[in-house]
Design brief:
Blueprint (H helix, E strand, L loop, with lengths): L1 E5 L3 H10 L4 E3 L2 H13 L6 H11 L5 E4 L5 H19 L2 E6 L13 H11 L4 E6 L2 H10 L3 E4 L1 H11 L16 E2 L2 E2 L8 H14 L5 E4 L5 H9 L4 E4 L1 H6 L4 H12 L3 H5 L2
Parallel strand pairs: 1-2, 1-10, 2-3, 3-4, 4-5, 5-6, 6-9, 9-10
Antiparallel strand pairs: 7-8
Helix pairs in contact: 1-3, 3-4, 4-5, 5-6, 6-8, 7-8
The structure holds erythose-4-phosphate.
Erythose-4-phosphate binds next to α7.
């Protein structure tokens, strides 16, 4: 499974690549806002165009998702093409991130604008990452439209399931892959019992039909979720820097290091 860093913070992105574990980057407008505000708070000036170019260079040819902010098919297509033209020459690694359905309300008529934009960008040879996927059927239509990646939001489905049962929860807390039972019934959203179940069903569906689109498990908030995303066959997991760091952490590893370090004999040290 490929690991992407889910951040627009250049320092975090540089760190993940320096560790040698990053295979790509995902950004979204909220992550970009956080990164911009952090720099401004430090009194640093920000030229956003140059900043994004630095992210693309840091990623060194691995995919970087840049999200559109427009919400109609024609404006998303125009913006997607402009973003691609402006930034892809830097390192040839831009994916345009398009919401699967940009309608704010169920009755808006723009339901299909996301997949229409994906289809047109694919026709022009521009790779896309279809975002805000909450059902396998959304993933299927995005894949048929030609998306390079589909991004099921695992953590947000878990938030929604816990929220629907009025549970108090910490977003980073583990949510069982097989679902959570309340009053004898498993919580579900139209048959989806957890974020990992959503990822698994997207993988099964796309692989079952031999579609080339890769499943990018997004909105992962803890290491066990990452493990489960890998075990159900996600092609990619995009992770905040803290979750990547947590993946290497275990108290027995630290305890073992303390003991081994205390036991080093000087004769052994002297050899090197
Ligand atoms: C990445 O593509 C997504 O935008 C991101 O993983 C969302 O994560 P969140 O639900 O923790 O905000």
């Amino acid at each position: 499974m490929k690991i992407f860093i889910d951040s627009a913070d250049l320092d975090e992105i540089k760190q993940a690549y320096a560790w040698g574990v990053a295979d790509g980057v995902t950004t979204n407008p909220s992550l970009l806002k956080m990164a911009v505000e952090k720099r401004v708070a430090k009194g640093k000036k920000l030229d956003l165009k140059t900043y994004i170019m630095q992210i693309l260079e840091t990623a060194g040819g691995t995919p970087v998702s840049l999200e559109v902010t427009k919400t109609t098919a024609s404006t998303m297509i125009t913006q997607g093409k402009k973003l691609f033209k402006l930034f892809n020459p830097v390192a040839g690694n831009v994916y345009i991130k398009i919401p699967v359905n940009p309608a704010f309300k169920a009755k808006d008529k723009s339901h299909f604008d996301g997949i229409a934009a994906i289809r047109e960008l694919a026709r022009c040879g521009i790779p896309t990452n279809c975002t805000l996927i909450f059902t396998p059927e959304q993933a299927l239509l995005a894949a048929k439209a030609g998306a390079g990646f589909v991004s099921p939001f695992a953590g947000r489905i878990d938030d929604d399931l816990r929220g629907s049962a009025n549970l108090k929860f910490d977003k980073t807390a583990y949510f069982p892959e097989d679902g959570m039972e309340i009053d004898g019934e498993v919580l579900h959203d139209n048959g989806i019992v957890s974020g990992i179940d959503l990822v698994a069903q997207c993988v099964e569906l796309l692989q079952g039909y031999g579609l080339d689109t890769e499943v990018l498990a997004a909105s992962l908030r803890n290491t066990r979720q990452v493990r489960e995303a890998a075990l159900v066959g996600a092609d990619i997991a995009t992770l905040p820097i803290g979750v990547i760091a947590d993946m290497l952490t275990h108290h027995k590893t630290s305890e073992g290091m303390e003991k081994f370090t205390a036991d080093i004999v000087p004769e052994y040290e002297a050899l090197t």
